[in-house]
Structures are given as C-alpha cells and as structure tokens.
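2024-03-11 09:14:02 DEBUG pipeline.ingest accepted 1 chain
2024-03-11 09:14:02 DEBUG pipeline.ingest length=497
2024-03-11 09:14:03 DEBUG pipeline.predict start
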Amino acid sequence: MSTAETLAAEVLKTGTLEGLPDGHFIDGQFSRPSHNQSMESFDPGRGEAFASFAAGTKADVDQAVESARRAFENVWRDMAPVERTRILQRASGLILENMARLAVAESLDSGKPLNEALGDVRGAARCFEYYAGACDKLQGDSFPLGPDYLGYSIHEPVGVTAHIIPWNYPISTTARGLAPALAAGCTVVAKPAEQTPFTALLLAEILTKAGLPDGVCNVVTGTGAEVGAPLTSHPDVDHITFTGSVATGQAVMSAAAREVTRVVLELGGKSPVVVLDDCDREKAMEGVMGAIFENAGQICSAGSRLVIERGIHDDFVEELVRRTRPLRLGHGLRNPDVGPVNSASHLEKIAGFVDRARSAGAEIATGGSVTTDPDTGKGWFFEPTIIDRAAPSDEVVREEIFGPVLTVQVADDADHALELANDCQYGLVAGIYSSDFSKANRLARRIDAGQIFINEYFAGGVEVPFGGNKKSGFGREKGIEGLKSYCKTKSIAARIG
C-alpha cells in the first residue's frame, strides 16, 4: 500500500487522525481561542465526530487581522519578489512531502474519496508552484506622453486579504486564493468552513515552515456568524475572496459595501453539459459521469444538467444508467467510486429536492434515495441519481442541488441546446461534446458562462482563469487574472523636461 493508503487504514481503525491542530493559527503559531471553546468536526463517512477545533470569535478575528496588518506593513509588501518566489516554491515542495497526511485529513474531514483528495493536494502544490513563478513578473506599463514626460504604472498589493473557504474543496480553494495573494505581496486571514477546518490550518503551518514570516498567513476557525461575519465586515480588511452560496455571497457583498472593500465572489452554478449527436460517445459518457459524480456532485462547477440532442438521447441515457447503477459507495478513505455528502443537513437538502421532483411526477431513471455505507450502515450518503426528461421550469433544473443528481434535458438541435444551456440564473461553466470543432466553438462563444470545456469536462488547470457570470458571481481566480485580483494599479506621471 502507498503511504496515504497505510495512513488511511490506520485512521479507519482508530476513527481519527492523530496530531490535528485544535487552535487558530495566528502570528506564526497555533493559539487557543479567546473564550477557550471548541467545536466538533464530523467524519461524513461515519456520521460521527472525530476531532475538535477552535470556535473563534470577533476577538480572534481582530487579533488575526492586526497580525496580518502588522506583517503587511513591516515585512511582506516590501520583501523582494524573488524572496517571495523562494518561499512559495519551498511551500510547494513541503505540500508534496506532506501529501499523505494532508490527503487523509482532507478525505476524513470532507468525505471525498482518498484518490480525489490526493489529486487536490497535488493541485494545491501546483498552485503554489505556479504563483511562485509569477512573483517577480508583475510588470507595469509605460505611457507615451512625449519627450517631456515620464509615465508608468506599477502593481501594488492590495493589503490584508480575507478568504472565506467552502467545505467541498478545502485545500484546493485555500491554495487558489492564498498563493496569488501571497505572490502579490498581500497578507492573509483565512476562515475555513466549520465543516472542514483542518487542511487550511495544516497549510498555514507548512507555509511558516517554508519561511513565511509570522503574521503573513493567519487562519481563524469557527462559524460564519462568529468568525465569517466579523471578518468580512472588518474595517482593516482590504479585499475579500468568497466561495459559497448566493445568499451568503450577497451578505458578504453587503458587508463589503459598507467599508468599500474589494470582493471576488464565486457563488456556484447549475452547469450544462451539452452533448450533440456528432460527439465521441465514449468520451462524452465518461465526461458526463465525472462531471456529476466526482466528489458526490458537491462541486460548484459540476455538470449537473445534461443537455442532449434528441437523436441520441435514448441510447445515451440507457447506457448512462447502466454505468451509474453499479457505482460503489463507501467511506472516502476506502476509495469508493462515490463518497458521502458532507453533512446530515446537506443530505436532507439533497433528498428534499429529489423527493419533491418525484412527487411532481419526475422520471427517476436511477437512484433517488438516501442510503448508508454498505460496509458499516453508517454515514451520509445519497444514491447517484439521474432524473430524465426534465422540463426547463422544474426546480431540479433551475436550482443548485449540490449533490450526485443529474437532470437530463432533451434538445431538438444545437440551437435549442444553446437556448436550454443559457436558460439559467447561473453562469459558471459549461461543457460541450461535439466532433465538429467549429460548431463547438460557436456554442462556446454564445453560452453565457465564465469557463467552457470542449470534449473534456474539467479540462485545464491553475493556468486557466476561473469564475462566473450572472448569479455565479464575478471576478476571476487562477491564472494571471487571479493574481491581478490582489493588485492595485498605481499610475505615475512626471514632467522631466
């Protein structure tokens, strides 16, 4: 067995991972919360608590922001870019050295299969590697003002940045926000989701071991009300990066408006996978299944709507159902095909969507029920589900379910598929499967989404900007665009003649 599998086997026996942090990470070290209270973190695969962590308060947020401000003004913003490069590069290497422990912690905390968690850790390391290479390449412009003037611009770090991290991809989302912020010269206060606090804390510790000065990266754990709200409304925070629901994003945006704080919002989606009758059906089949059943469908950019041409609908859906029914459910550390959903409350939400659809007469082609780990009878699981021939007005088509539930919409042709794809309040991503590359690119231009995948869902990587349109939010993460989110442009014009 690999190191990760060996550690996973030990955790399955003991029910916990030894040595997990139980305090905030502030000013370069772990510290107890101000009122010395804690919360439990639950293993979704068992539905049982496995560890506790600090329950933060506004006082803890104030301490973390003060530490970040001090580090920004006294150390980090003026550090030579090449020195920031070296620290982030070392961090990337240390993430890989600690990959097994990070992946097991991620799987245990979030529920996702271990192989998926290992991929997330590799992606986090790559994120720091990518932005390490960008630190000393933030170049400004010069302006042609004539022989008597010198005009130029420089990119300056925005200052103290707040990061509100979701529970579905804890280490991935932490890395994609922290790495560019640190590369730009900003300091960080991160608030991980209360369901999944541990990898953000472990990552902050790794950054310190890589040489990050004290106070540059701080992590405060706790609830949205006690930690998230004070952080997003803090007058000494210069920028907020938020990933989560539309409703919470609106509250964050409102709080930011009061202090005129910059924001990047990624608020989820209801993304279409358009499958045309000229597609490579095997590639399309694999893409559709991965798009909805990876991480039990708990992905902002999940391909949760299959929009398929009528001519291939029957055969395609029949095969899709045939491949879906034998998918193995189980505890994430046992590497199932599909793991649990993250919490009891979220399981109830998913079940509510499907139950209402069933009551309204929806065609449930497969799945559709709450279940448990077949090995233990425990955990928060929902069967991989396909709802066929859904109408555009159906709730399961229009609302984000955030679970292993695929809705199928039938299109008459490519133009109708475009109409169905765009008939949505969200606009995060979309997938297109077609052997006609010209047709696929025409669709890609006309679908209203921030990122389009052609003939491979989830194509790309940290190099490709990511973010949404419409109610999926605004701003971009990843790529050089993501780095610019943490910069402010200063223009300078001088008379020299």
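2024-03-11 09:14:41 DEBUG pipeline.report DSSP finds 16 helices and 24 strands in the chain.
2024-03-11 09:14:41 DEBUG pipeline.predict end
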